[in-house]
C-alpha cells in the first residue's frame, strides 16, 4: 500500500488549504511588507487577519485578502493547525487531512524565540492542532514555504534550512539574520527585495 506521503507527491492537483497569517505587528514596516508579499506568492489561498484598515492604502503591499478582525473572531468554528515553535510535535502531511486551515504568526523574528505565537495566537484558538517546524526560528515567509513543502509530501527532516543568513557586504562587514531560510539546490530562498532593503538602510 502507498504511504500518504507518496500519494501526495504523485498527486498533481493538491488543493491548497486556507492559510491565515494572523498579524501581530503594530506597524507595517517595509520588511514586514516584503515578507507578506512573498507569502502571497508562495500560497495563493491566504487571508491576513488583524490588519488595520489603514494598511490597505500602503504603497508597499496590496493585500489580496485581509480582514481587520482576529482569526479567532472570524473563524471561531474552524479547526486550525497552529504553527507554534513551543509545540513538541513536528508538522507532518497527515495533519492537513483533519484541519480546516493553517495559522502562521505575522510576527517578525527576534534573536531568540519569544513565545509570542503562543501568547498572541495559540491560546486564543478553540479547536487546534499545534505543530512545530523544528528548533530553528523561521521567517514568516519561510514558515509558509516549509508548510507548503510538507503539504506536498516532503518530510521536515528532508527540508534543508539555514540556521541564520549572512549578507556579506565586503571583506570586513556583514549582516547576520538569525533566522532559518529554506535551501533548495544549494540556493537560499530569501525574501525578494529584503537584501536591497537592508542595504538601503545600511547606507543611510
Ligand atoms: C519569525 S516567527 C516568530 C516566532 C515568535 N518570535 C515566537 O517565539 O513565537 C513567525 C511565525 O512563523 C512560524 N514559525 C517560525 N518558526 C517556527 C518553528 N520553528 N516552529 C513553528 N512555527 C514557526 C510561527 O507561526 C511564527 O509565529
Order of helices and strands: HEHEEHEEHEHEEEEEH
Q: What fold name stands as the CATH topology?
A: Alpha/beta knot
Ligand list? S-adenosylmethionine
Helical coverage, percent range? 25-40%
Strand order of the largest sheet: 3-2-1-5-4-6
Beta-strand fraction estimate? 15-25%
**Based on helices, strands and strand pairing, what is the structural class?**
alpha/beta
**Count, helices:** 6
Mean pLDDT: 93
Question: How many structural domains?
Answer: 1
Number of strands: 11
Cα end-to-end separation:
60 Å
What's the alpha carbon Rg, rounded to whole Å? 17 Å
Assigned CATH architecture: 3-Layer(aba) Sandwich
Shape: globular
CATH class: Alpha Beta
The main sheet comes to: 6 strands, parallel
Explain what this protein looks like in three dimensions:
The protein has one domain (4-154): 3-Layer(aba) Sandwich (Alpha/beta knot). Helix 2 (30-42) packs parallel to helix 5 (140-151). The chain has a six-stranded parallel sheet with strand order 3-2-1-5-4-6, covered by helices on one side. The protein has helices spanning 4-10, 30-42, 71-74, 116-120, 140-151, 194-203; strands at residues 18-23, 46-49, 66-67, 79-83, 101-106, 127-131, 160-161, 165-168, 174-177, 182-184, 187-188. It has six helices and eleven strands. The protein is α/β, with parallel strands linked by helices and 204 residues long. The N and C termini lie far apart (60 Å).
Amino acid at each position: 500500500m502507498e504511504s500518504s506521503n507518496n500519494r501526495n507527491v504523485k498527486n498533481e492537483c493538491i488543493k491548497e488549504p486556507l492559510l491565515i497569517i494572523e498579524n501581530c505587528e503594530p506597524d507595517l514596516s517595509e520588511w514586514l511588507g516584503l515578507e507578506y508579499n512573498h507569502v502571497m506568492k508562495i500560497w495563493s489561498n491566504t487571508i491576513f487577519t488583524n490588519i488595520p484598515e489603514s494598511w490597505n492604502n500602503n504603497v508597499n503591499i496590496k493585500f489580496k485578502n485581509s480582514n481587520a478582525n482576529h482569526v479567532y473572531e472570524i473563524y471561531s468554528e474552524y479547526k486550525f493547525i497552529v504553527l507554534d515553535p513551543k509545540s513538541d510535535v513536528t508538522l507532518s502531511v497527515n495533519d492537513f487531512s483533519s484541519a480546516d486551515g493553517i495559522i502562521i504568526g505575522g510576527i517578525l523574528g527576534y534573536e531568540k524565540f519569544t513565545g509570542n505565537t503562543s501568547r498572541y495566537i495559540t491560546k486564543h484558538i478553540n479547536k487546534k492542532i499545534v505543530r512545530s517546524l523544528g528548533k530553528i526560528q523561521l521567517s514568516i515567509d519561510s514558515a509558509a514555504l516549509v508548510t507548503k513543502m510538507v503539504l506536498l509530501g516532503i518530510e521536515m527532516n528532508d527540508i534543508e534550512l539555514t540556521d541564520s543568513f549572512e549578507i556579506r557586504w565586503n571583506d570586513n562587514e556583514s549582516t547576520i539574520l538569525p533566522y532559518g531560510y529554506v535551501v533548495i539546490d544549494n540556493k537560499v530562498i530569501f525574501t525578494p527585495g529584503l537584501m536591497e532593503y537592508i542595504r538601503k538602510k545600511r547606507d543611510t
